[in-house]
Amino acid sequence: MIGFDLGSEAGRERARLAMENFGIAFFESNVATGQVVVTPNAFSMFGLPAPPGMPVDRTGFWECYHPEDLESARATFAADLRGERNRDIYCERVRIIRQTDRAIRHIEFLGRMFGPPGARTHIVGMLRDVTDVAEAEERRSLLVREVNHRANNTLSVVQALLRLTDAADVPDYKRRLEGRILSLARTQTLLDQAARHPAAFALLIASELAAYRDHLTLEVDEVPDLVPNAVQPVAMILYEMATNAAKHGALAAATGEVRIEARCEGAAVVLRWAERGGAPLAAPPARKGTGMAVIQSQIRRLGGTQALDWTPEGLRAELRFPMASWAGPAADAQPKP
Prior knowledge:
The protein is α+β, with helices and mostly antiparallel strands and 337 residues long.
């Protein structure tokens, strides 16, 4: 076998170290027969039972591919066999469904194809589980998108401040506007502190909605402090709702107002958001924007629910969060009035 029957004791030891310490599996695939010889750890990677002998049919591995990746993976494999990418290296990353626990894993292949394009005979190479790397890349990509989205929203907030700030003369306007912008600059510091400790809901409103404080009416009825894990999701919900109101709702007008109520009802914390005083709303939004998607994802993150009503006066929303997600399991165990 040309793939990993390495012959020398040193070669075998290198292969053993690669398999045990780096999770690398080795394979040799016969293109003509569809048979493959692999090291035993490849079967564990796919959650397949180890066979009594080699070679085995390649189909068993293909059947583990994630349905969303299978067609493109087969097309890439066939294109490489035909030489359409002008290379003898086969390199691919796919998702599989591990058969033992149905977990989605990311597997990376790297190999050398032998034989001329269109008449390949063998592929020899290695594969490894790169799920941790792939998930880290996805988290970084999501973070970049969230940062860009928040930066764009901040510009919208500043535009709203220009519209909402009312003053008798230019010096007064300048003073009021600078004060609001400085309050925005303090917001992230307050949130960073709150994210490490329990936070009062009033503090969250003060930090996230400071720019709109002259246009808010608050009614907070003994709502418990948020546990650290709930601080960021609730802050993002408030921020996105305020930004949406500044773009399209009541906070887009100097006369606009938002009423926020927060109270405990049974085993839930209920937030009610009601806009008024803006331009009359002719109809609900035709499509769900990024901001609303963020709101809904953070509500789901806390196991909450939402009810939205787009009235002519503006958005009315009722958000419900389990007490255990908001204030922790201990608060949920307390008797409710």
